[in-house]
Each structure stands twice: as structure tokens, then as C-alpha cells.
Amino acid sequence: MVLGGYALGVGFVLLALALILWWHGSMLAEKTGLPNGRILYTDAGNAWISNDEPLYDPHLRLVGKPDYLVEEADGMIVPVEVKSGRAPEQPWESHLYQLAAYCWLVEVEYGLRPSHGIIQYKDRAFAVDYSDELREEFLDLLTEMREDIFEAEVDRDHNDWNRCARCGVASACTQRLG
């Protein structure tokens, strides 16, 4: 009788521990901004899932490594891009096009067009519709970028000195602000 009570007590302790761990895991998952589903791909430094191969479209010669690809219960594959900074009022245009590129690559690699993708900033997430309009704007931008490769000098497309200060080619730029 004493042994049965002891086993019952241990069982309750294990059940309580399991519930605490489940709750803690749920809170961590919510903080990541990832949708519910199975992680198919990660480039976020997760040691459990290693993806060395980027997504690739040979026709457009486009390569990308989204932070996460999550397969939802309905089979939809959602690209997630994680940003380390605080969220702006609306996602930055460059982040929208980066996400659109990942949506395009999912469409090519998996044969499924995502309905949306997610941009997860430090303090907020944005679900972004992968609309026909965003898709076309992305493809137009890619064409424009490829045309600019052959230009001797490309004009700066902004007036943001902060952006210039963080630019990787600032030292060689003749149009640098500040």
C-alpha cells in the first residue's frame, strides 16, 4: 500500500514536470514568431536541423537561404525571415523583397506557391501576403538589378545617411551621404 502511494506521488510529480516543460516550450515557440507546423528548413544556426543547401532557381539564377521554412497542417509552406532589430511601423521594402524572393524559391523548389510569409522582428511579426502584385514587383526589381550590373555607375536610390553608414560599399561610393 505504501509502495502504491509512493508510485502515485512520483507519477503526479512527473506529470506536473511534463506540463511545466510543455508550457515552457509553448512560450518559447510563441516568442520565435514561427507559425505552428513542422520545420522543414532552417538557416538560423539550429544544431538539430542542418541545411547546407540553399534554395535555388536555375532559370533566374536566384539563390537564397531563408531562416525557416515551416510546413503548416494544410501543407502550406511558409518562409520566415528573422530580423534582429526592432520592428518599424511597416516592414522595410528591402525585407519585403527578400521575403518575396524566398516565396518564389519555395514555389520553384517545392512546387507550391506560398500564400504568405512572415518577417519576425525582435518585438513584432508581420504576416505578408505573397500577392500577385508583390510577386511581379519582385521580378521587376530582379530584372532592374540585373540591368544595373552592366551600368558603369548606379545612382543612389535613397536619402538616408544611416543606411549609407551601414552600407557594405560605402568606402567606394561616390554618392555617399554624410
UniProtKB/TrEMBL annotation:
Entry keyword annotation includes Membrane: yes
Keywords, ordered alphabetically: Hydrolase, Iron, Iron-sulfur, Membrane, Metal-binding, Nuclease, Transmembrane, Transmembrane helix
GO molecular-function terms, A-Z: hydrolase activity; iron-sulfur cluster binding; metal ion binding; nuclease activity
Stored InterPro entries: Cas4_exonuclease, PDDEXK-like_dom_sf, PDDEXK_AddAB-type
Transmembrane region(s): 6-23
Pfam family, one: PDDEXK_1
Listed cofactors: [4Fe-4S] cluster
Record domain PD-(D/E)XK endonuclease-like: where: 52-173
UniProt-recorded name of the protein: PD-(D/E)XK endonuclease-like domain-containing protein
Organism listed in the record: hydrothermal vent metagenome
Source species taxonomy: unclassified sequences, metagenomes, ecological metagenomes
